[in-house]
Every structure is written in structure tokens, then in C-alpha cells.
Write a structure and sequence with these properties.
Order of helices and strands: EEHHHHEHHHE
Strand content: 5-15%
Distance between the termini: 23 Å
Number of helices: 7
Largest sheet: 2 strands, antiparallel
Low-confidence stretches: 1-7
Strand order of the largest sheet: 1-2
Structural class: mainly alpha
Length: 153
């Protein structure tokens, strides 16, 4: 098998595409969390008005507002053709399947749910997995057979 690709070996190219991915993932998360928070402002106003109109029943929607917004955001961004959220695009990274296939919206949602479940159980220790796993993959990446790579390298 020929591992030479233009200017280096396949291994060298893969290393370049993984360079700085862990840090970029953290920055992407912060950007995406801020976006979901900003999206929650108009949704909160709508829920408030709905709560008044429904004599208080609509206020129960506040309990599911953040998860529904986050899942919808991830499905439409990471599950899109770009395979990246806005924060991931800003940090020049994207999510891919190990076989090079595309991420569909359902996989993007499962990836996000596993991320939050992992954080609920392991809190900041989720990033420790990237120190010991192959290709800086997190626990939810390992479970789903996905990898985060730099786009421009």
C-alpha cells in the first residue's frame, strides 16, 4: 500500500489534521454555548407570552427549552453538509466518521447527547480521554466511531 500523498506520508498528514484539535474543540464549545444562549432569549420571550396566554401552563416549556434548542442547533449545523457547528467552523474543525463518511443529523444529535451525558457524569474529566485515546478522540467519539479534524490541513 502506498502511504505517500503529495507532500508527506498519510501519517504525517493525519497528524497535521489533528494538531490543536483539543483546544479548538473547547473554543468551539464556548462559541456554540453562547449562540444557544443568545437563541434562548427570543424563545424565552415567546414562552413567557405563551405562559400568560395559557394561564401558566406554557411556563413548563422553560424546562425543556435549552435541550430542545441545543439539539435543534446541533442537528441543523453539525448534521449539515459542513459537518460543523458555527463554533467548529470558526475554529476550522469538523466532525467526520472514521470511514470518511458524512455525519447525518441523527448522528449529530446522538453525539451531542452523549457529550452532555458524559459531562453530567464525568464533568471536566471528559477531556482526559483525549490525552490517552488514539487521534485525540473523546469518549463519545469512540462510542460513535467519529473523529474531529482540522479542515484546512
Amino acid at each position: 500500500m502506498n502511504t505517500t500523498i503529495e507532500h508527506g506520508t498519510l501519517h504525517e498528514i493525519e497528524d497535521a489534521r489533528l494538531d490543536g484539535v483539543r483546544t479548538r474543540r473547547v473554543y468551539a464549545f464556548l462559541i456554540d454555548a453562547a449562540i444557544v444562549f443568545l437563541l434562548s432569549i427570543p424563545v424565552s420571550i415567546v414562552i413567557f407570552l405563551l405562559g400568560i396566554v395559557t394561564l401558566g401552563l406554557g411556563f413548563f416549556l422553560y424546562a425543556i427549552m435549552f435541550p430542545v434548542l441545543a439539539i435543534t442547533y446541533v442537528a441543523y449545523t453539525m448534521g449539515s453538509e459542513d459537518q460543523a457547528t458555527v463554533g467548529m467552523k470558526a475554529n476550522d474543525i469538523y466532525l467526520s466518521r472514521l470511514d470518511g463518511g458524512r455525519i447525518d443529523p441523527v448522528t449529530a444529535i446522538v453525539h451531542s447527547v452523549l457529550f452532555w451525558a458524559g459531562n453530567a457524569v464525568l464533568t471536566p474529566l471528559v477531556l482526559l480521554v483525549t490525552l490517552f485515546s488514539d487521534r485525540k478522540r473523546t469518549l463519545h467519539d469512540l462510542l460513535l466511531g467519529t473523529i474531529v479534524l482540522r479542515r484546512s490541513r
